[in-house]
Amino acid sequence: MKESFDLQDLRDWPKVAREISPPIRLGVVGDPVAHSLSPPMQNAVLEKGGFAFRYAAFQIAPDELAEALGLFRAHDFLGLNLTVPHKIAALSLVDEVDERAQKIGAINTVTFRDGRSLGANTDGPGFARALREEFSVDLRDLRVLLLGAGGGAGRAVAWQCAQENCERLVLVNRTLPKAQTLARELAASFSGPRVLGPEARLEAVPWEERALRAQLERTDLVINASSLGLKQADPSPLPGSLLAPHLMIHDLVPRLAPTRLLALAAESGARGANGLSMLFHQGALAFELWCDRPAPLAAMREALRLATG
Fold first, then answer.
1. Of 75, 147, 201, 248, which alpha carbon lies 20 to 30 A from 66's?
2. Which one of 2, 48, 87, 178 is the catalytic residue?
3. How far is 309 from 304, CA to CA, in rounded Å?
4. Which residues contact 177 (CB under 8 A, 6 or more apart)?
5. Are 185 and 155 in contact (CB under 8 A)?
6. Sorting pLDDT into bands at 50, 70 and 90, what band is 221?
7. Where do the structural domains in the chain lie, given as residue ranges?
């Protein structure tokens, strides 16, 4: 089977699918998508559960997404995961969106049922589970700095921080107005009593070293939800001089090899975690939406371990 399929394959799907057994009825859609670890992880779950279908990767460009979603539905797919850069754009392309995803403004999971496409977002709860697993802490009462607050994953994590009543949330984005817009959407969730006294519980700040230095002195958890780190040559979203031993650094890039940020975190004495645990937990939640049964977590975890060497 091919490593990934494209829009032309979807257009020719009846012909393409004849060569594939068991049939593909689930997939991950992104641009790029070849790096995705979801296919081996989800296929292990499907095999363990005795399902007679498979999961594959689909390389779909932003201007191809609307057509692709229509073709997935027409070809009787059960569901999809959405990754960069499709989570926000897909929100307006499905028939129905659940309440959580509507608030977030992004979806990462699509379920096809009774001729309709249903959008949901498992990134937030998946992240919360991953945080507990990696650092043995909950978001509640943490002071959080979120890098990449304008994208789909960043928005989902920000809303999860609000839902779990984190003590303080600082939103950082290359395009500051996007972070400011998200701050306005979240404002009601941060209007309660302040343990920290007069300090604002919710802020949007520019992605500049001087502004970040002042914030990191009052931060417990740094989350990188930006795309920096997806490529091996990417720089760190934060200079190492800003990192300190008291920080927890959760880089949501799902790579076993340390990103530059995590390498700098280790040098500074900070605790760090990559995005594989979030990939695992959001994927398990997506499986449960598609298949209406608990995910076999042990098989899923072992498949992810094998896929990452």
1. 147
2. 87
3. 9
4. none
5. no
6. very high
7. 7-120+278-308, 124-273
Burial group, residue 198, by CB count within 10 angstroms (0-12, 13-18, 19+): exposed
* φ and ψ of 90, to 5 deg: -70, -20
Give CATH for domain 7-120+278-308: 3.40.50.10860
The answer to whether the CB of 5 falls within 8 A of the CB of 29 is: no
In which band, very low, low, confident or very high, does the pLDDT at 198 lie, cut at 50, 70 and 90? low
Mean pLDDT computed over 286-302: 94
User: Quick count: other Cβ atoms within 10 Å of Cβ 235?
Assistant: 12
- Whether 103 sits among the annotated catalytic residues: the reply is no
What's the pTM? 0.94
Residues 57, 4: contact at Cβ < 8 Å? yes
